[in-house]
Amino acid sequence: MKKKVDGRIRTLVENGVKTRERTMFFIVGDKGRDQVVNLHYMLSKAVVKARPSVLWCYKTDLYMSSNRKKRAKQIKKLQQRGLLTSETEDPFALFVASTNIRYCYYADTHKVLGNTYGMLVLQDFEAMTPNLLARTIETVEGGGIIVFLISSLDSLSKLYTMSMDVHARFRTESHQDVIARFNERFILSLASCKRCILMDDELNILPTSTHVKAIKAVDDSVATEESEEAKELRELNESLADTQPIGPLVNLCRTIDQGKAVVTFLDAASEKTLRSTVALTASRGRGKSAALGVAIAGALAMGYANIFVTSPSPENLTTLFEFIFKGLDALDYKEHIDYDLVESTNPAFAKAIVRVNVFRNHRQTVQYISPESAERVQHAELLVIDEAAAIPLPVVKALLGPYLVFLCSTVNGYEGTGRSLSLKLISQLREQGVKQGNQAHAQGKMITGGRLLKEVQLQEPIRYAPGDPIESWLHNVLCLNAADHVPRLIHRLPHPSECELYHVNRDALFSHHQASEQFLQRMMALYVASHYKNTPNDLQLMSDAPAHRLFVLLPPVDEASNSMPDILAVVQVALEGAISKQSAKANLARGHAPQGDMIPWTVGQQFQDAELPTLSGVRIVRIAVHPEVTRGGYGTRAVSQLIRYYQGSPRGVGELSDLSEKDAEESGYGEEHKAPQVEQGEDGLLEERLKPRADMPPLLASLGELRPERLHWLGTSFGLTKELLAFWG
C-alpha cells in the first residue's frame, strides 16, 4: 500500500541541495533498506546533475550480494521461499541496477579517502567506530544524504547499552563490564543536529527530532547568490586568463583558497630550485587532492619529466589523477595522442590508475609509488605526497630529498598522525629554513643547502557549503576541531605545588550536558595539542574502556566563581594485572599476550614469571599538559599526586579517607551507570523523547573523597627519547 511521505523530509533534502548542505537520516527498523531507494529518488529529483553515486558501508554481510549474478540467484531463492515479492523487490533491484554503488567493508574504508559520493549508507551500527564515521561522512558532497540503518528497536535508549564490536578489545580479564557511554552521547547529539532526522522504517519522524517542526523551504534565490569568495575567485581567473599555463588551470578551481594554492604550487615549480617544499594543510573536504592534481598538470606543462606520487593506497589518488587529466585537457593535451594512462593490475587496487605517460614534447611520467619505496625517488624532479597524515612520520621524512616536494595533509587528526605531521615535520622544516636564512644573511650570501618551505592552508570547504551543520556536528561529537581551539589560560597561574589532581567521572563527562561538553572539548584540546598520534577512536577508548580512569590537574578552585576552571594537565591511566595464575601460565607458555594488560604481559614474558601478571597495578597511558605551561613542573605535580593517591595519601595527610566503596556509589562518584532518563509512551519509539539524564553525579571529585584501588605497582610505557627519559627519570 502506498503511503504519502512526510513533506518535511522532502523539504529537508531539497533545502540541502539548494544550500549545498548535507542531510542525515537515522532510520530505525528492519525495512530501512527499502527507504534508501525513496531517499535516493528524492535526491535525484532535487539535483540537476547526474544520478548521485552511493557509498554503501557494511560489516560483513549485505542483504543482497554486490555481484550481479549472485544477486539474481539470491532473489530467486527468496522468491521461492515467499520472502520476496515483485512489489517489494522491484524498486530496490532497479535502484541497484541503475545506480553507481560502491560497496565497502568497514575494514576497507581507508580506501575511500579522497573520493566523493552523493549518498552514504551505513549499516551494522554495532561495528561503527569514531574513525569510521570520520572517514566516511566526510566523503559526502554538499546536498548529499547520509543514512544510518538501525535494526528494529522499541526504544532508542537501547542503543545506550548495545554491545559494540570494539568493546571486545576494551575488555581485560579483570575488567569485563563495558559501559557504552559513547553511544549515549552520540545518540543525544543527533537530536541537536538541525540537519538530521530520526525516523522509523516507514518514514515516520520520531519525536526526538523536534527541530523539524519549524522547517521551511529555502528560497531558490539562495542557490544563485554570489558570495564574496566566489567574486574574489572570478577576479583571480580574469587576471590570469591570458597567462600560460596557469590561467586555464586556475579556472578549474572551485574556491579562492584552492586557486591561491595552485598559484603557490606553480610558483615553486617555475623556480626549479628543486629544494623547495610546499606544504598544504586543511581539514577534510577542502579540495587538497584536486589542487595537487591541477598543480601536477602545470608541472608537466613546465617540462618536469620525472614526477612521483605517493599515498597510503593508489585508490586514495582517484581525485588527484582525475584532476591531472582535467588539467591536461584544459591545456589542450589529447588522450592517446599526447598522453596515456596505466591502470594497476593488482586486484586489490580495483584498477586504480598508477602511471601517466606524457609524450607531447619529450617523454614525461607521473608514477605512483608506495610510501615505503624511498629508494625509487632518487631521480625525481617532483615528489607529491598526498594524504601524508595517513603515512607514518619517519616514512614521510625518508621520502624528502634534493627535489621539489608537494606535501598535503589533513590536520584534524583522524587519519592517524595528522597532528604529528603539522607539529613535527613542518615545524622542523620551518626552523631549518629560518636557520639557513639567518646564516645566509650573516655571511652576506645565499645558502642553497637547506630546504625552502612554503605553507598553504585551505579553509573554505569544496565538497559542501561553509558552515555545513553536518560538519559542525561531526567535529563536535568526535572533538575533531579541538586542536585549533586550545583554551587560553585566563586565571592566575599558580605554582605547581598549589594545584590539585581531581578524578573525572566519565558518566558525567560523556552525558552530553552543556557544561560537561565544554569540559570534554577542553580535555581533548590538550590531548591533541600535547600528543602527536591521535585518532577519534581514542575518544571511545576514554569513554567506554572499563579499566581506564581520567584525572585532571586544576589550579585552586574559587567556589564563588561560575566560570570553568583552567585545565593544566590531563592524566589517563589504565588498571592492569589481577590476572589469574592459571591464565597467566597458559598464555606465557604459548607466548600469547591477550588484549590489554600491557605491562604485566610484557614484563611477565621477558622474565618468564607467571606471578607478576597476578599482581594488580596501574599504567599511565597519557599525560597531556597545557601547551602554555609545558616544562613548568605541572606534569610532574600530576604524577606525584597520582602516586600519593594510589599509595593512600592524596593530600599528604597520611590517612585514607573513610569513604567506603558503597559510600562512593551513593554519593555519585563511582563509575556505575544509571539507566538513561526516557519519556516513553505506550507506543514506545513513536512517543519517546530522549534528553540528557538529570540525575548525574558530580563531574569532578577530590581524591581525598575517594578510595583508590588496591595496587602493587605503578608504571608507564613510551618510546624512549631524551626528553621523556629526563621527565620520568
TrEMBL record:
<protein>
    <recommendedName>
        <fullName>RNA cytidine acetyltransferase</fullName>
    </recommendedName>
</protein>
<feature type="domain" description="TcmA/NAT10 helicase">
    <location>
        <begin position="280"/>
        <end position="481"/>
    </location>
</feature>
<keyword id="KW-0819">tRNA processing</keyword>
<dbReference type="Pfam" id="PF05127">
    <property type="entry name" value="NAT10_TcmA_helicase"/>
</dbReference>
<dbReference type="GO" id="GO:1990883">
    <property type="term" value="F:18S rRNA cytidine N-acetyltransferase activity"/>
</dbReference>
<keyword id="KW-0808">Transferase</keyword>
<dbReference type="InterPro" id="IPR013562">
    <property type="entry name" value="TmcA/NAT10_N"/>
</dbReference>
<dbReference type="GO" id="GO:0000049">
    <property type="term" value="F:tRNA binding"/>
</dbReference>
<dbReference type="Pfam" id="PF13718">
    <property type="entry name" value="GNAT_acetyltr_2"/>
</dbReference>
<dbReference type="Pfam" id="PF08351">
    <property type="entry name" value="TmcA_N"/>
</dbReference>
<keyword id="KW-0539">Nucleus</keyword>
<dbReference type="GO" id="GO:1904812">
    <property type="term" value="P:rRNA acetylation involved in maturation of SSU-rRNA"/>
</dbReference>
<dbReference type="GO" id="GO:0030686">
    <property type="term" value="C:90S preribosome"/>
</dbReference>
<feature type="region of interest" description="Disordered">
    <location>
        <begin position="654"/>
        <end position="683"/>
    </location>
</feature>
<dbReference type="GO" id="GO:0005730">
    <property type="term" value="C:nucleolus"/>
</dbReference>
<dbReference type="InterPro" id="IPR033688">
    <property type="entry name" value="NAT10"/>
</dbReference>
<keyword id="KW-0012">Acyltransferase</keyword>
<dbReference type="GO" id="GO:0008033">
    <property type="term" value="P:tRNA processing"/>
</dbReference>
<dbReference type="InterPro" id="IPR000182">
    <property type="entry name" value="GNAT_dom"/>
</dbReference>
<keyword id="KW-0547">Nucleotide-binding</keyword>
<dbReference type="InterPro" id="IPR027417">
    <property type="entry name" value="P-loop_NTPase"/>
</dbReference>
<dbReference type="InterPro" id="IPR032672">
    <property type="entry name" value="TmcA/NAT10/Kre33"/>
</dbReference>
<keyword id="KW-0698">rRNA processing</keyword>
<feature type="domain" description="TmcA/NAT10 N-terminal">
    <location>
        <begin position="7"/>
        <end position="200"/>
    </location>
</feature>
<dbReference type="GO" id="GO:0005524">
    <property type="term" value="F:ATP binding"/>
</dbReference>
<dbReference type="InterPro" id="IPR007807">
    <property type="entry name" value="TcmA/NAT10_helicase"/>
</dbReference>
<keyword id="KW-0067">ATP-binding</keyword>
<feature type="domain" description="N-acetyltransferase">
    <location>
        <begin position="522"/>
        <end position="728"/>
    </location>
</feature>
